[in-house]
Known about the structure:
- The structure is a homodimer of 420-residue chains.
- With 420 residues, chain A is an alpha/beta fold.
- The first copy, chain A, folds into three domains: 2-171, 3-Layer(aba) Sandwich (Molybdenum Cofactor Biosythetic Enzyme, Chain A), CATH 3.40.980; 176-254, Alpha-Beta Plaits; 259-419, Alpha-Beta Complex (Maf protein), CATH 3.90.950.
- In chain A, 43% of the residues lie in helices and 25% in strands.
- Chain A is built from 16 helices and 17 strands.
- The first copy, chain A, has helices spanning 10-13, 21-31, 46-59, 77-85, 93-103, 112-116, 153-171, 189-195, 197-201, 229-247, 259-269, 284-290, 308-315, 319-325, 330-344, 391-419; strands at 2-8, 35-42, 62-66, 89-91, 119-121, 125-127, 136-141, 144-149, 176-184, 207-213, 218-226, 251-254, 274-278, 299-305, 348-354, 369-376, 379-386.
- In chain A, strands 2-1-3-8-7-6 form a six-stranded mixed sheet, with helices on both faces. In chain A, strands 14-13-15-16-17 form a five-stranded mixed sheet, with helices on both faces. In chain A, strands 10-11-9-12 form a four-stranded antiparallel sheet, covered by helices on one side.
- In chain A, helix 2 runs parallel beside helix 7 (153-171) and helix 11 packs parallel to helix 16 (391-419).
- The longest helix of chain A is centred in the C-terminal third of the chain and has 29 residues, at 391-419.
- The two termini of chain A are 53 Å apart.
- The model of chain A has no long low-confidence stretch (mean pLDDT 91).
- At the A-B interface, helix 2, strand 2, helix 8, strand 10 and helix 12 of A face helix 1, helix 2, strand 2, strand 10 and helix 12 of B.
Amino acid sequence: MDADIITIGDEILIGQIVDTNSAWIAQKLNAEGINIRQISSISDHPEHIIAALQESGEKSSITLITGGLGPTRDDRTKTALCTYFKTKLIENSEVLEHITQLLTPRGISINSLNREQALVPEKATVLHNTLGTAPGLWFSEKGKIYVFLPGVPFEMKNLIDNEVIPRVRKVFSTPVILHRTILTQGLAESTLAEKIESWEDSLPESLKLAYLPSPQNVRLRLTARGENEEILVQLLEQKIKALNELIAENIFGYDEDTMAGNVGNILYSNGLTLSVAESCTGGNIAHFLTLNPGSSSYFKGGIVAYSNEVKVKLLKVDPHLIAENGAVSQEVAEAMAIGARQAMNTDYSIATTGIAGPDGGTIEKPVGTIWIAIAGPSTLISKRFTFANNRERTIIRSTQTALNLLRLELLKLTIKGKEK
Amino acid sequence: MDADIITIGDEILIGQIVDTNSAWIAQKLNAEGINIRQISSISDHPEHIIAALQESGEKSSITLITGGLGPTRDDRTKTALCTYFKTKLIENSEVLEHITQLLTPRGISINSLNREQALVPEKATVLHNTLGTAPGLWFSEKGKIYVFLPGVPFEMKNLIDNEVIPRVRKVFSTPVILHRTILTQGLAESTLAEKIESWEDSLPESLKLAYLPSPQNVRLRLTARGENEEILVQLLEQKIKALNELIAENIFGYDEDTMAGNVGNILYSNGLTLSVAESCTGGNIAHFLTLNPGSSSYFKGGIVAYSNEVKVKLLKVDPHLIAENGAVSQEVAEAMAIGARQAMNTDYSIATTGIAGPDGGTIEKPVGTIWIAIAGPSTLISKRFTFANNRERTIIRSTQTALNLLRLELLKLTIKGKEK
């Protein structure tokens, strides 16, 4: 079962707004087992609207169109669809009554523009828009469904949930579709692909895999499609378990999880506290941690030690260590982590020092060289990384890598706890 | 001149990610006087890719395709376009060399997947992707242009700016179109619109205004279109000057400027240093400052004082002040700013303390209440703000507002300096 989503209007075509409606609708239809064939944004020229309806009608079972139903004169959708469906506009008394009821309390009297909104194509079933003046329209034509909705997000969402989805369920019987996203860190896309090649080859036809890389991490999305939900759930669980046996250290979460959120959860559930000492990451680790509501219960604070003076004064790094090894060194990273833990009196600490670039690199320590250290009650580890020559990406990757190092340390603790 | 933008891949079709690439590309092409006819997202099925190329080639002069060029096996774009353009894949030695140079320093050895990325269609002109492994591809076929770009946003943006736009300018002669973007901070879109209404009415037909709101600020884009570049430049300058007379305090920069970058420039050119003390912004001010290359010359460091213990210990905030006024108060914000300036020995400091939410609000201090303080050699100012009930937005708006407060303070200094 395929569907198309079409948005009418110029705001998206000139890049003034980003189309978030379509992603929301796609998720909703997917959850009903409906596959989205194509998402398009088009202008409100009648010929363009008619051509888009024509093409979609040939290729998909459902066409969902948003926008182009407002009260102003740039909306030419209704005329175009009368041409396409060979019908005419008639005044709908229920819609007119609803518009009057909506506008009168706001002190707005019905003008000709509002009155035009009560005109609906004779062939259409009206979808009652409780939250706005433009009604939704439902056409059933030669076994295909066309649904027109206003573009205002909260009106559109309300109509999808309460009018469109229940009708779609009645008309079509749809298969089961499930998605799981596995979040990985620390492997480039190509290395990851090589490591899990045999696992990927073992996937049955009912499971599809997609790689979704971003500057932060590589996500793997598994899509299961079939008739029996229980079987699909088991299949997904089984394959995710097998994947964990291959790359356990690199999987930090699933679906909507974030690295900082998951590290926070482990700290919280173990009653542990954290501080950070950041040089090259410049406050970004603290920022990622504090994006999570409730982070104040485990994150006590951080020192952004951008200058050596601050490293010495607030983190008590021995100035000789800096003079002998340079600020970007294992010795300084470890001293920073120890210093943060003591200064802020926490169980664990993370420290970063590196060359984010574009300047400051040498042959021995090129731009992208980062030392990360983790200090804990009975732990002091440090590791060197080399990231790409791009300041913003290096900051993000250093942040995620540092949080993952702490996560792996904390997991050892949990395993030890369980062994006792 | 019409263009189509097509995105290949399932992530958008299943609603997992919102298509922000297309809006960015649309803005860029608009700036060149190119009209966007249609924006589409399609699956990576070869038949669908070929059908989309066919349709776009019939209706537009330029087709810009992103996505579907990664190293893993879910990318079937290159095969599809070989079919469409009747060509074959050949190994490109320059691309292979570039991939090797990118991956070797990261300790990644070239595998068969990376090697496949060096295969390019024989008919294509390779667009060198300095930031990633997948090259861009440019086809010129029967007077139509087709451009394929990787979907990773920073790689795609770099290729558009440095490879695509210059070539498009050579191939098509377009009218003179100039854009200036005016960056404002501190006024909601509707308030701003009201304040500048008469100015907006005064704009001649050759100038078009667009409001581009974002969580960080409201940008105003002026587009000038005509035959004579000199006249358009003068017109833009004159209108921007007039706008400055209306909302000088709210204009913090132009075009690609950032608030943190501009604050940094003022500090740098005056030989001044800065430190920060962050509670509710959780390190984000330090992060925004350190995103700028060279920030180490004026930004010495920060203390993320998330717990009261850190406020007292490292920022020397009197615990009685916290007990009497609460951590979110004018007194504590000012004490934090003074403490940061002293602890890190800087000319200026910024402090934030607030309730980012979703919990912790009271009737007197609802979620979104933020105190910001600025301390300097002969300055101590503080101000209360109430932002929306959304954690991430409140963090971003507090960050930008705090930096703008410092900017306005620093500008007074510059004016005083000039008066002497």
